[in-house]
Amino acid sequence: MLNFNAHFPTRIHFGRGKIEDLGEEILSYGNKVLLVYGGGSIKRSGLYDQLLQVFQGNDINHIELSGVQPNPRISSVRQGVELCKQHQVHLVLAVGGGSTIDCAKIIAAGANYDGDAWDFFTRKAKIQHALPVGTVLTLAATGSEMSPNAVINNDDTKQKLGIGSSILIPRFSILDPEYSFTVPPEQTAAGTVDIMSHVFEQYFSPTPGTFIQNRLAEAMLKTCIHYGPLAMVQPDNYESRANLMWTGSLALNGLLGTGKRTDWATHGIEHEISALYDVTHGLGLAILTPYWMHYVLDEQTAPRLAEYARNIWGVDESDDIIAARTGIMKTARFFKSMNLAGSLKEIGVETERLAEMAEKATSRGPLGTFRKLEYQDVLNILQAAYDGTSLPLL
Amino acid sequence: MLNFNAHFPTRIHFGRGKIEDLGEEILSYGNKVLLVYGGGSIKRSGLYDQLLQVFQGNDINHIELSGVQPNPRISSVRQGVELCKQHQVHLVLAVGGGSTIDCAKIIAAGANYDGDAWDFFTRKAKIQHALPVGTVLTLAATGSEMSPNAVINNDDTKQKLGIGSSILIPRFSILDPEYSFTVPPEQTAAGTVDIMSHVFEQYFSPTPGTFIQNRLAEAMLKTCIHYGPLAMVQPDNYESRANLMWTGSLALNGLLGTGKRTDWATHGIEHEISALYDVTHGLGLAILTPYWMHYVLDEQTAPRLAEYARNIWGVDESDDIIAARTGIMKTARFFKSMNLAGSLKEIGVETERLAEMAEKATSRGPLGTFRKLEYQDVLNILQAAYDGTSLPLL
Predict the structure, then answer these.
(1) Which residues in chain A touch residue B18, judged by CB atoms under 8 angstroms apart?
(2) Is any Cβ of chain B less than 8 angstroms from the Cβ of A197?
(3) Contact present, A105 and A77 (Cβ < 8 Å)
């Protein structure tokens, strides 16, 4: 186990009707709020009206930035920053899923910076200050509601880049599982894979001696596997939605990565896909993950992948390589059972752009720590995932 | 799953040499510290000298309260409160295990209260303010380093009472597993059981639908079972000490109890034993736990106890009652394998005082939620644990 610092500062308000805590939380930062949200879903669900009631009941002034898209754009961030500066906002309130929250985080940082917010992603500027961010979550997936990270797309440069800073960690998050009842099955599946992928990125590590972290990771994987399919067929099952929502937050709040090197290669590759194609992040991860696992499997990584197969999929096989392959196959089958696409070509990715993605993904150096991936490795993974048939299904 | 609020505000500095972060942490609260510790062990280990260096190197003034005992006394608290008031201390720094930290917490609360600190325990006064508390942990056991709780003994009234307040949660904790290398085997075993008991108290619950919490609890139990015995025979094995230390903190920081009713009956009973006999808390818990499990096992609780047996001990038995009994037996055997006593009479408890303990334990009402325990139930458990032979070992 490596040395680490850990801090989980977000105040969590979890459960039915927890919107009742929102007014008091906001007022501890001020009474002028930038409300950030996506499309009309929060209006259809009635959540928007609840928010207005909270604002009115607590004398909170609000300005709105709506229309934040999945794979949120730097253009939305710039609009939000402008509004914050113009209206001297005290808090940025994100209502939605990870895209909305990520957008809100960078708005909050940009509001306290004189230049353009894209500078944070090009490393031209470092985030020094940010307005406080609060969230009302409507989708179990990205974990952004407790995390220091944000990922933003730049349509001009065709880049999708991420940054992290403890300054960006939301001060509070309202997690009411009922808000996720309206998430359609395909989004529920993609969200479940997103959570699992966050776990994988931290579970598969070259650092030895992290027993507790690995067991905690397995707890979260088991929860996703148990409830993801259930939430797809019973969208208003509170137990499923609650377990997925709390797991999604815990999977990326820093707990699983304590004391170990983490990987994040699969995310690095996927970002290049969704930078070009506006693919749902979790869907891209579902396609890539089994191919990543298969590619990194070797004598050195086999014990860990075999441990995964045994502890998660109950694989009863003493040979590590065979156990690992079985676990990979079961992973792929599980994603398929949730009706997720199994190849990049199915989702419209073009074969002639794979090299470009591999190049961009490794432009800042090799990816991953569990096994280091250079340009050619990434290209090999993308090619295998493109075709979708090269995974040995035993 | 029930509604909940959660907040984990303690800043964790984990690993070898992390004492280097202490000066900066202290200075963010002020430069006058009350150093609270137990006996001479921190002097023998060299930790005391390290602390003096940190104080000197950062121009931090310190006053000392030493001699805090296991099962810490309200008399020590009163001394510490006096020192804080006299010297206008900015932060209370506990260096040691749970007893020292608990003592420091109530000192911190008492320093901001005009009456006697025991008033908090008799519910005569509520904790409204407290000085900030920081900790340097030397023993993996109580989880006090991230928790809102404190338990204090009153020799005059022969009471051992606990309280909890978010105001008491340590602001920072330095967790260097090397400081626990000198913990002797019997204390290591007792600490391991203490951690496991904290998990049990939250794992065994009447609340349905808490899948993620239950799997996280199992992750922690597996870690204790894996590393407790290893740390006893290899006291300077960093991996074992590190896994136990981080697990001990996570087991009582509020995470496992999110969204569910928790039990705490076993702790309630044990407190009456260690109020009268100054028994090591973890040892008392090791004796009581299997008898508590055995006593609460019925048709209603069997599925959960059977789940424990299957997931933790690999019991392969479809009948819940039989599976549960097997799991209970394996629990008792595990504690015995760590050379812990198996009966109350072995540790000097007198049979004629069991009724008194049962009465005190239930004086504020029945104990527990997994199964509610009245006076007679508690007495039955104490009598069975006294004898130590009535547990069916199949």
Answers:
(1) 3
(2) no
(3) no
Residue A185's pLDDT band, with cuts at 50, 70 and 90, is very high
Same CATH fold assignment for domains A11-179 and A185-387: no
Structure tokens at B147: 């928790």
B300 by DSSP, 3-state: which? coil
Low-confidence ranges of chain B (pLDDT < 70): 390, 392-394
Farthest CA pair distance, chain A: 65
Which of A269, A273, A291, A288 is CA-nearest to residue A351?
A: A273
Residues of B in contact with A226 (CB under 8 A): 211
Is pLDDT of A394 > 60? no
Q: From CA A153, how far away is CA A172, in angstroms rounded?
A: 25
B226: nearest CB among A3, A4, A211 = A211
| Cβ–Cβ under 8 Å, residues B354 and B269 | no
Burial profile B314-328: b = 16 or more Cβ within 10 angstroms, e = fewer: ebeeeebbebbbbbb
Interface pTM, i.e. ipTM: 0.97
Query: Taking Cα atoms as reference points, which of A56, A63, A60 lies closest to residue A85?
Result: A63
Count of A–B CB contacts within 8 Å? 129
- What residue segments make up the domains of chain A, in order of their start? 11-179, 185-387
Closest CA to A269 of A190, A363, A199, A189: A363
**Domain A185-387, classified CATH 1.20.1090.10, yes or no:** yes
User: Tell me, what DSSP letter sits at residue A162?
Assistant: E
Tokens for B285, please give them: 């818990």
User: Chain A within 8 Å of B161 (Cβ-Cβ)?
Assistant: no
A 39-58 near B (Cβ less than 8 A) = none
CA distances in angstroms from A142 to A145, A250, B184, listed in the order given: 8, 10, 44
Class of domain B184-387: mainly alpha
| Residue B327 three-state SS | helix
Question: Rounded to a whole number, what is the largest CA-CA distance in chain B?
Answer: 65
Give the span between the Cα atoms of B247 and B391, in whole angstroms. 29
Q: Quote the radius of gyration of chain B (alpha carbons, Å).
A: 20
CA distances (Å), origin A278, targets A39, A163, A336, A370, B361: 16, 19, 21, 28, 61
Residues with Cβ within 8 Å of residue B199, at least 6 apart in sequence: B217, B220, B221, B224, B251, B256
The pLDDT tens digits of the residues spanning B164-218 come to 999 999 999 999 999 999 999 999 999 999 999 999 999 999 999 999 999 999 9
Residue B330 in contact with residue B313, Cβ under 8 Å? yes
pTM score of the predicted model: 0.97
Q: Which residues contact B54 (CB under 8 A, 6 or more apart)?
A: B19, B22, B23, B26, B60
DSSP B221: H
pLDDT score, position B40: 86
CATH class of B11-179: alpha beta
Both tokens of residue A35?
Answer: 């409300």
Which are the contacts of B236, defined by CB distance < 8 A and separation ≥ 6? B181
B254 burial (CB, 10 Å; 0-12 / 13-18 / 19+) is buried
Beta bridge partners of A174: A13, A136
Rounded Cα distance between A37 and A99, Å, is 9
- Give the closest-approach CA distance of A91 to chain B in angstroms: 20
DSSP per-residue letters across A52-113:
HHHHHHTT-EEEEE--PPSS-BHHHHHHHHHHHHHHT-SEEEEEESHHHHHHHHHHHHHTT-
